[in-house]
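step: validate -> pass
step: tokenize input -> pass
step: predict -> running
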Amino acid sequence: MTCAVPTAWPAPAKLNLFLHVVGRRADGYHLLQTVFQIIDLCDTVTLAAREDGVIERIDPLPGLDPEDDLCVRAARELQRQTGCRLGVAIGLRKRIPIGGGLGGGSSDAATVLVALNEIWETALNVDELARIGAELGADVPVFVHGRSAWAEGIGDQIQPIDLEARWYVLLVPGVHVATPQVFASPELTRDTPLTTIARFVSGCPTRNDLEPVVRARHREVDLALRWLSSHAPGRMSGSGSCVFAALADEAEARRIADACPEQWRALVVRGLAQSPLRDAVQAYRARRAG
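step: predict -> pass
step: emit ->
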């Protein structure tokens, strides 16, 4: 077996600026409207091509079955759908909190798809990669496309959206929220009226429909959101547990983060117009061409 020199690739987190549950399909999937804001908090995925076709995860997360590892599944699915005979050794440095509603696992999988498409030279376009990503999880396509986006359907109908530059205070309550349990909750409302991009941009009220369910079940999320909302309008991201507030000024964001009680971790992150993964792809292509 010959293994190439590993290359490092960013996998950014996202915030859901709002999340409306507008219905439910016959197959049980929920219909949503949301805006994904890409932020500069990133995991790092390292990839080293193997000539023997083996796909392996280096230092897997404790207790995670390799068959459930989204990075491994992404590589295997790309390999299967393209007929590529190469393999890969996958490493992952986690910075995005697990179970925080920030899309870390989905972003890691998207980075594996996008980066391996370059390394293996499988030559799929972004829409083809996004279709593979959708088979892995509803949030994967937005990270494949690499832009902040308006999303509908089960999260797979994506339109790029331009968002105002913002800094965010992000609180990590330190609890893990099980997304399937939140969506299965009997008190979850599933009939929020449809809105539009124009209404969102004009400042019409929005919310996260999952937030009341999570706050009722996880006291730390409720307390963190109460504290944050005493400084700036706060909201939960995705199915939680992380909560955030948007600020126009970095200094104000850092002032709030510095005042955060010790039981929670506070981060200051920046909203991005596009994913750093796009820049990494361009840099990789330039190195390969040179």
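step: describe -> The radius of gyration is 19 Å.
step: cleanup -> pass
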